[in-house]
Amino acid sequence: LAKTTQPISMDSYEGQEVNITCSHNNIATNDYITWYQQFPSQGPRFIIQGYKTKVTNEVASLFIPADRKSSTLSLPRVSLSDTAVYYCLVGDDYGQNFVFGPGTRLSVLP
Amino acid sequence: DSGVTQTPKHLITATGQRVTLRCSPRSGDLSVYWYQQSLDQGLQFLIQYYNGEERAKGNILERFSAQQFPDLHSELNLSSLELGDSALYFCASSASGLAVLGGDTGELFFGEGSRLTVL
């Protein structure tokens, strides 16, 4: 089972780009990478998912190097409302893409 | 609005009691997941059901049980409650519980949670 490692916390300022890296050295061939965002007292919300290279949507970008042993969630020009916990999940069709680790607590400062 | 409905939103009870939390998944979603989140803690995966059958089990205590009914709604039963069971309990649903590469992402849709306080 691929296990993920993320920084426990990060600080940023409004308007900056934030990059959160997740390590998953044991990622398997069929595994894909999914990121969620959670605000206090709310359930997590899907941000982005990818398998390799780069994926971009209206909220974020996900960079995955060729060896897929890590991934980086990029949030462009963060605002105070991006203060949340960000989770990286790795798994395939049959497991662990629903098991959350401790996540990264992002604090955006004015 | 994720489309996942959880009831009750808040529940206060005493130690030793039993409670039932209910979850209605998004229309058409076959998989339901239960999570426990204590104050300032991470999301602890408890159990997953797919179309009425238990599919995966996490760190769910023996005092806890769950089931998914034919109409796909699910209930989480917590018995012999202890102070440490006080937490937010989230239910999530996904379309199939399977994520086909390039197709269904297996995205989880979470409800607003049920906040349980054990006194």
Please provide a written account of the structure.
The complex is a heterodimer of chains A (110) and B (119). Helices cover 0% and strands 47% of the residues of chain A. Chain A is built from no helices and 9 strands. A 5-stranded mixed sheet of chain A has the order 1-9-8-3-4, with no helix packed on it. A 4-stranded antiparallel sheet of chain A has the order 2-7-6-5, with no helix packed on it. Chain A is globular. The mean pLDDT of chain A is 91. Helix content of chain B is 0%, strand content 48%. In chain B, the strands form 2 sheets. In chain B, strands 2, 4, 5, 6, 9, 10 and 11 form a 7-stranded mixed sheet that branches. A 4-stranded antiparallel sheet of chain B has the order 1-3-8-7, with no helix packed on it. In chain B, a hairpin with a 2-residue loop joins strand 5 and strand 6. Chain B is globular. Chains A and B meet through strand 3 and strand 4 of A and strand 9 and strand 10 of B.
Structure characteristics:
heterodimer, A: 110 residues, mainly beta, 9 strands, globular, B: 119 residues, 4-stranded antiparallel β-sheet, 11 strands
Helix-strand layout with pairing:
The complex is a heterodimer of chains A (110) and B (119).
Chain A: E1 9-13, E2 18-23, E3 32-38, E4 45-50, E5 53-56, E6 61-64, E7 70-75, E8 84-91, E9 104-109
Parallel strand pairs in A: 1-9
Antiparallel strand pairs in A: 2-7, 3-4, 3-8, 5-6, 6-7, 8-9
Chain B: E1 5-7, E2 10-13, E3 19-24, E4 31-37, E5 44-50, E6 53-57, E7 64-68, E8 74-78, E9 87-94, E10 109-110, E11 114-118
Parallel strand pairs in B: 2-11
Antiparallel strand pairs in B: 1-3, 3-8, 4-5, 4-9, 5-6, 7-8, 9-10, 9-11
